[in-house]
Design a protein that fits this description.
11 helices, alpha/beta, NDH2-like_C (chains A, B), NADH:ubiquinone reductase (non-electrogenic) (chains A, B), FAD/NAD(P)-binding domain, globular, 4-stranded parallel sheet, membrane (chains A, B), 419 residues, FAD (chains A, B), transmembrane helix (chains A, B), homodimer
Chain lengths: 419, 419
């Protein structure tokens, strides 16, 4: 009966949520589809992996966020293809028509063709992966405490993080804090402080997107925390026995992959040009070439920035794109034109450990405890944008500031499985 | 080098923890073994199943609780047998000698021989089972929202709880609150308030251990909340299609088993008499007949109470037994005698829903909101006993009072699997 236009948004990450939020209450029907039932605050996911936070502290049911937005419907389901000319998305044996389509499907862990490494070296892109890593890390210490075999013990207490970007730095720092501080008094036969944490980066420095002095500070901080940083070292093999890094084989039961991501599916679905990482190369209004009613945003999109850069895959960029596309759709409905998308880069920011972080605000550099507090406040600010109740925020801050490694649970049916 | 006696405690539930806590700092070596790494606050487990609480809010790493108790070692591992005469416990290919052994291994869900019902009707005894139930409940609503088939929709929105004891009552009440309140505005194509919640009990009343008027109150309260209570109805079959209750077959994708527990393994390990539920019939000092250095306590023990009753399987009883056995061991080491164990019953207490509970304090009966607040305070009191920091308690109370269904996450690798 309604003659309202239907906007289908695929993906409930930062980009997709931002579209749906801006269109909530407007004169369009919004259908938001995700294969999971929750929106994930990805920047804190590593803290689930290192037992600082519980999954429910950084993820919220999508439909509860839009509970009071009558024009937004949420579906949990998987999209398997698109009929661009028929204006329909396909999900298994079902289909759904759209007037506008926004693809905000995000990225997944990429092993650069070495997919068999995945079993031994999980990535960190969703809650299942994070709780899997948490289980591995905690079980490693439990098994080392139980072991009578020195070589096995060594293997269990060697932690290898592959990739020196923000996620790798955060993981290495958080594992160091777990081993050297949180667990330090909890065992009787091993000393968790004996754990080796190795951070391997193929390039010449950590945090490639940052100025050299902040990269140096990051490296020195990690080294002070007990992390063995290895730069310019390629990882050439990963098995359940360990990882080959440069010329060394490091026996390790705990390899974590933080070296890359890729965009699945969109090349097949759209049959349009993608970049090396599978990101769809979009027009200046973030639309799919040839289809001005279809948009690709967030980590899934290759968006030009200035002359020789692309917009980075970070939350603020995804949200800007989401807001832009929502505005663009409203403009089209009003018959108005829209200026091209323009990315506004606030800066780069990465945390190393408690009271240690680095921030580069377009050349204005901050490091140490001040940066850490700014990092914390920035995250709280973004979190408030997702989950309205201020009470919940207070609880989260409380929990983050005062509760150390409160989520050290090993659960799941194979909680006891041997390595 | 140490000539200290070794006390091995198997199981880190209320009973085992209570032994280890009382022996912490004493002149004995305590080894506490559990197949999981966490102590679980079982009485609130149903709130994990109904998405009120996260696992980490009701479970704590055992070893962190004993972090500062140098004479207590914690091992995560599974015991597979006991050599009573050789004073050794066996775990796979390893063994460990003891001077005193305390078996506090607890109970597991029992299907009374119908183990094939387990797949369609999970029980509620550990965190994995609770998160499994949570996933099923939440997915049922998601799938109903997606479904075009009225019969399938009906099956997805029929919830059957088998067993009218405290766990069954709590589950039925919490599912009713989830469907009729928490989710009521979150869907567009179904109305979660249309969910049917059926509570089936084979006996003539709910909460068999309670006085009749409190059982009646419980039934009327559940009915007000929209639960269909069916008394005197045997469940004769459960499949993935539904459950046969009395003469009715109820199509349901969500059957939850809260009808019974049993004690595994101890009959085989001890070769001593057990009762119908597998509980070991112990001496008046809770020792195993014939072995005065081996004790069985908690849900695993059949302990006489008065003339014709046994001590109930509730947390306060388990803790009393744990304290008693720790005292008994210390007495033996001092060459002192110990009076027989005497159970002191404070009362029975069950919650029906928010602001509705029943309490029977040895004949002094309370019901309604006052009982609910007493129930809440009693749980906080017990929780304080486990996890020292008062700050954490404040957080928990806050969370419990103000956060509604905050843990509505569907996670796990089969998060999208079809029914």
């Amino acid at each position: 009966m309604s003659e309202r236009k239907r906007v289908v948004v695929v993906g409930a990450g930062f980009a997709g949520m931002s579209v749906a939020k801006k269109l909530a209450g407007k004169d369009v029907d919004v259908v938001l589809i995700d294969k999971r039932n929750h929106h994930l605050f990805q920047p804190l996911l590593y803290q689930v992996a290192t037992a600082d936070l519980s999954p429910a502290e950084i993820a919220w049911p999508v439909r509860s966020i839009f509970s009071r937005s009558a024009n937004v419907s949420v579906f949990m389901g998987e999209v398997t293809g698109i009929d661009l000319d028929g204006k329909r998305i396909i999900g298994g044996d079902r289909e759904l028509g759209y007037d506008f389509l926004v693809l905000a499907t995000g990225a997944v862990t990429s092993y650069f063709g070495k997919n068999h490494w995945a079993r031994a070296a999980p990535g960190l892109k969703n809650i299942s992966e994070a709780t899997d890593i948490r289980k591995r890390l905690l079980l490693a210490f439990e098994r080392a405490e139980n072991s009578e075999d020195e070589a096995e013990k060594r293997k269990l207490l060697n932690f290898v993080v592959v990739g020196g970007g923000p996620t790798g730095v955060e993981m290495a720092g958080a594992i160091a804090e777990l081993a050297k501080q949180a667990l330090s008094h909890d065992f009787r036969r091993i000393d968790p402080r004996d754990a080796n944490i190795i951070l391997a980066e193929g390039g010449p420095k950590l945090l490639a997107a940052f100025p050299d002095d902040l990269s140096d500070y990051t490296q020195k901080s990690l080294e002070t925390m007990g992390v063995d940083v290895r730069l310019g070292q390629q990882v050439s093999d990963i098995t359940v026995e360990g990882a080959k890094i440069g010329d060394d084989f490091i026996p390790s039961a705990n390899v974590i992959w933080a070296a890359g991501v890729e965009v699945p599916d969109l090349k097949d679905w759209t049959e349009k040009p993608v970049d090396r990482g599978g990101r769809v190369i979009v027009e200046s209004d973030l639309s799919l070439p040839g289809y001005d009613n279809v948009f690709v945003i967030g980590d899934a999109a290759h968006v030009k920035w200035g002359n020789d850069q692309t917009v980075p895959g970070i939350a603020p960029a995804a949200k800007q794109q989401g807001k832009y596309v929502a505005g663009r759709i409203l403009d089209v409905l009003k018959g108005q034109s829209t200026p091209p998308f323009k990315y506004s880069h606030a800066g780069n920011l990465a945390t190393i450990g408690r009271h240690r972080a680095v921030i580069d605000l377009n050349g204005f550099k901050i490091k140490g405890w001040l940066a850490w507090w700014i990092w914390g406040l920035a995250h709280i600010y973004f979190l408030i944008g997702i989950r309205a109740p201020a009470l919940v925020m207070v609880q989260w801050v409380w929990s983050y500031l005062f509760r150390k490694k409160g989520a050290r649970l090993i659960t799941g049916s194979d909680a006891q499985s041997k390595p």
